Amino acid sequence: MSQHDAPHAGGPLWSLAAVVRPRLRVLSSTKRHLAGGGRGAARSAALGPGAALLVITGFLTGTVVGVTLDQLTSDANRAVQVAAAQAAQLRAERLDAAATERLSGQATAYFARRRTEALDAAQTVVTEAALVRDAAGPVVGPDALGPLDEAVTALAALVGTAPTAPIVLETATANVAAQIPLPEPTLAPVAPTTPGADVLALVAASKGQPDAADEPTMQASPVGRSVGRGPAAAGPDPAAASRATPVVDALSVTTSASIVQTAAGVPPAAMSGRPPLDGIFARAVALSPTVPAADLAAAAAEGLDVTVSNQILGLVDQVRALSVQVRASADAVVAEQVALVEAKAAAQEAARLAATRAARTMRTRIAATDAAPNGEIPTVLLCGVSFSAKVLLRCDAASMLEQMDAAYRQSSGRHLVISSSYRTTNEQDVLRATKGELAAVAGTSNHGRAQAIDLAGAGNLGTFDTPIYLWLVENAGTFGWHHPSYMEPGGAGPLEPWHWEFDTT
What we know:
By secondary structure, the chain is mainly alpha-helical. It has 14 helices and six strands. Strands 3-4-6-5 form a four-stranded antiparallel sheet, covered by helices on one side. Strand 1 and strand 2 (227-228) form a beta hairpin. The longest helix is centred in the first third of the chain and has 92 residues, at 49-140. 22% of the residues are buried. Residues 1-28, 30-48, 51-55 and 210-278 have low confidence and may be disordered.
């Protein structure tokens, strides 16, 4: 057998091919001879019946071998295709698992950020609402603050039911890790006790044999690993131990804050404040490689319910809007009060200016009145009163008479009745001609100076007991009016109880 005909060491298929290949060559040669015409036919005839049988057998054998080779090749191709499909499916499953882990981590991180955003916004808006309430409360009153107080109360109640993102993630990590079964600790077999071991040890020592105590022994490890000094100290699967150790570490942490600190590799004393939100999920997952992100996301889903976070943010917007409304109401009330104060101040200033102008005008008119001759005062310089259309007096006298009439009316319910006030020179001459010495000479009467009045009902000549006279005696001086002393009882006369003067001696 040549080297081309030797069976291949690769397997049965190549061995079968090595056996069949020579026969196929003989069969092919026989076919060529048969196809060669007369010369081939003569040779075939010369071969005889045995040769013919050999040719037929070789032909059939070649056919069977060809069919077997084709079938084996087809089966091999199908096996390769199946293996490739299985590898592709496994790769797709790994990719799907990785995508699920990644999406679970992203979802949990989003929920955590949303919760932290909601709680921070709630704290800020409640502080702002308290400031608004303190500032606006005295201005707008409790009715305007009612809706804001109710919204703040509802927000505080909802926040009280929503734990912070770090607490939820820490708790979820510990809970998931606690559900992962730990590998059973592998205990080393205990060597049997040999009776009389001490004696045997002494005998062995006397013969120079190794002490039985020096033989390798195995001890049980409290953490599931076998420790020894020889080959027999084989422990559990190192991969299983590496997977279990982080879980044990996670479960040994006593507080939720320590879990995040341990995951971050930072000593608890070095941690202060809340860890950055973007790193919370990564540190929580890093706490234990055996905690899948999908399981952690499922465990944290309830505590980080985004619906609750959205409800908190909705109440935050409501409280903020009500705070703005209360502040606007308070600003409007303050603006109104300021406007009233300013209007009052403006009115007071206008009144002051008007009074100043009136006083200036009055002083000017009084000065002009005093400068005019008795009984010849221009009437445009004089002033009247509201309760009697015929009264004309010096302006200051008229003003005080107006006030005295208001006091008398409040006391008696009636106005003073003025029968005479300013008299011109002609009017004084007529009165002198009518009453004689009871009327002063024109140019000498205070009626001509517009500073005297006669009141009806004050009494007759020499009578000083009427109610009007008695009230005037008690109150007229308050308003600058007085009864001349020479007309008082016992005076030089004439004794006229009706005659009263203003700012005279």
